[in-house]
Amino acid sequence: MGQVVDVTQLQDNTLFGVRTQTSNKASAITQSTTNDIHGSTLSTSSVPCRAVYVGTTGNLSVVMANDNDGTFGTKVVFNNVPVGVFPIQVVAVHTDTTASDLVALF
């Protein structure tokens, strides 16, 4: 059994040494192969969201905020993402995503 944490006792927005912060803005995500989650042309200056809310389960095809290999714009697919908040920072959601009712949390 995992450790139970009373989140009302968190101090300075940290949990297990990891900085936490709630979202204060949300917007529906329009899937695109050329635009970011804000509707602007996808670029290295695209601003990521804090997390993605998934309303209907499915695959999530995204461009992450920072690619591990040093390139930008590489598509990553997460299979069978459940309904709920998926804590990943993305700049774009591709059109081949099968999950739906997506909301970017900022």
What is the topology, as strand order, of the major beta sheet?
A: 3-9-4-7
What composes the largest sheet? 4 strands, antiparallel
SSE succession: EEEEEEEEE
Low-confidence stretches: 1-5
Query: In the residues, how many domains can be counted?
Result: 1
Structure characterization notes:
The chain has no helices and nine strands. With 106 residues, it is mainly β. The protein has one domain (23-105). 18% of the residues are buried. Mean pLDDT is 83; it is low at 1-5.
What distinguishing features does this structure have?
three-stranded antiparallel sheet; 106 residues; mainly beta; four-stranded antiparallel sheet
SSE inventory with pairings:
Blueprint: E1 14-15, E2 18-19, E3 26-28, E4 51-56, E5 58-64, E6 75-81, E7 84-86, E8 90-93, E9 100-105
Antiparallel strand pairs: 1-2, 3-9, 4-7, 4-9, 5-6, 5-8
Describe what is shown at a glance.
This protein has 106 residues and is mostly beta strands. It is 0% helix and 38% strand. It has no helices and nine strands.
